[in-house]
Amino acid sequence: MNTITTRTPGFREAAAFEWTKFSSLRSTRWTTAAVGLLTVAGAVFVGLSGSLQPDDTVLGGSLTLAVVALMIAGVAGALAVCGEYSSGTIGSTLAAVPRRGRVLTAKAALLAGVLFPLALVSCTVAYVLGDAILEDGAYAQGEPFPALLGIAALFAVVAVLGLAIGTLLRHSAGAVTAVIAVMLLPSLFGPLFGNLQRWIAGATPTAALEKLTQTSDASAEAVGSLGAWPSLALVTGYTLLLLLLAARSLHRRDV
Amino acid sequence: MIEARELTKRYGDRTAVDRLSFTVRPGLVTGFLGPNGAGKSTTMRMVLGLDAPSSGTVTVAGQRYDRLGAPLRVVGSLLDAKSVHGGRTVRRHLLGLARSNAIPRRRVDEVLELVGLADVADQRAKGLSLGMGQRLGIAAALLGDPEVLILDEPVNGLDTEGIRWIRDLLKSQAAQGRTVFLSSHLMSEMELTADHLIVIGRGRLLADTDMRDFIRTNSQGGTRVRTPDDEAQRMRALLESRGARVALDATGGWRVTGLGPSEVGELAREHRLAVHELTPVLSSLEEVYTQMTRSSVEFRGAETPYETEEAFR
């Protein structure tokens, strides 16, 4: 009876579904645009105002606002799933793609696939702008390559981290708060933990970003002596762990 | 075909659906009736794999829903018309669903045309009226040209023209050999649309039967007899002398129980009484249903022990 004869849908179709949903909302389009625009705007602001520490690098200074952009990337990740719960579309999404692990993987792939190139381009543009505006030779240059690739990867990872948190918590407000808490609180309250600070604050995505951008904030006292790339690996590691937990919870829960 | 076997859903110590077994067959419109809180929506959610049964199984087209390769091409569902993101346009909402199941893009325009939303295809969903939202939900259900349709309260928010439209649509879908399973609290509507009924109360099956049979069996109808005014009292006396119970019908004339139309007709001829109307009267589905579910209404309180048999008497 069914007149539609095409291939059995798989991951590709699930990903196309997620892309259609993602790209058809103003809110997600603007949130994503904000990630790129903020980074670039930060470089222009810092360059024109010259507001960086004497021991800072051009790369670190240009990417001053990347911390905020990174937070927005995490929020975008959380909203990619919490928006489905608040609007009620989660039911029709899971009726269309009953393999829940596939839905989550498709969302993660979409977020990573959007944020990696976006962050790579915007951070590179920010660096080039910052470099052009800042006074030559006044600051150490910093090593833009391959750090910029790592920074872009970090944006992708943090968006997926937001997705995992959002899937576990389901409610937008709670998930956004949790994402911001993960990004900010360890640095704010780190000093309370004494010697543990280096470990707690050092494990955050924010610390990984500071190390990758080689800013003067990334001192061993504040964020530990773990190198930039191992930090990125650490954040990626616990993000994947949380994503697994999220997948398990999504699989077990009633919608 | 939808088959539920001993389907059970418990929330803590509350049992929402209790060992429910039924089969929804193709080629018919099957109505799913029950008072609020009877477990209709929970059952439908379990059919669609959204909620997991505590025990028991349910299959659609012979398979568990989550094992269907392309579910939207087998089962179309409408659970909650609000399950559309208000910021998305009508077309993009459907397009996303179409992509998820490798349904050709042209189907989006076809179903938009079919439900009468082609003119608002590029509007955001939040601007839609309740009735248009319902039509969009039905468009989504029809998108994959599915052999099974599962609709929870599909006429909610539709105007009379919309209700008639959906009634015709569901009947034609069933006539094409599809399985149509719909719940509604509008019994008058169910009476006009459904061929078969599954009635539940407190999560348990109360009846699974042909709709006409259901009304006939549970009916306290009788025969409406209308005579010229000056012969009405003679007719009444005559009928009562033969053991019938005679009451005034709401529409005028007598409502006779205990004697069928043929007996009343014969009797009238023997006694040379004129008969202006002789109509078999069945209770409406609403009357029967109200009577049946009275004992199983959720808020009845726990001190009344619930018996399934009771509901049939």
TrEMBL record, chain A:
Pfam families: ABC2_membrane_2 (PF12679). The keyword S-adenosyl-L-methionine does not apply. The keyword Amino-acid biosynthesis does not apply. One of its GO terms (molecular function) is ABC-type transporter activity. Signal peptide: none annotated. Keywords: Membrane, Transmembrane, Transmembrane helix. GO terms for cellular component: plasma membrane. The chain crosses the membrane at residues 30-52, 58-82, 108-129, 149-169, 176-194, 228-247. This is ABC-2 family transporter protein. It comes from Streptomyces indicus.
UniProtKB/TrEMBL annotation, chain B:
Gene3D superfamilies: P-loop containing nucleotide triphosphate hydrolases (3.40.50.300). Keywords: ATP-binding, Nucleotide-binding, Transport. PROSITE patterns: ABC_TRANSPORTER_2. It comes from the Bacteria. GO terms for molecular function: ATP binding; ATP hydrolysis activity. InterPro entries: AAA+_ATPase, ABC_transporter-like_ATP-bd, P-loop_NTPase. Residues 2-227 form the ABC transporter domain. CDD domains: ABC_BcrA_bacitracin_resist. SUPFAM superfamilies: P-loop containing nucleoside triphosphate hydrolases (SSF52540). Pfam families: ABC_tran. Belongs to the ABC transporter superfamily. This is ABC-2 type transport system ATP-binding protein.
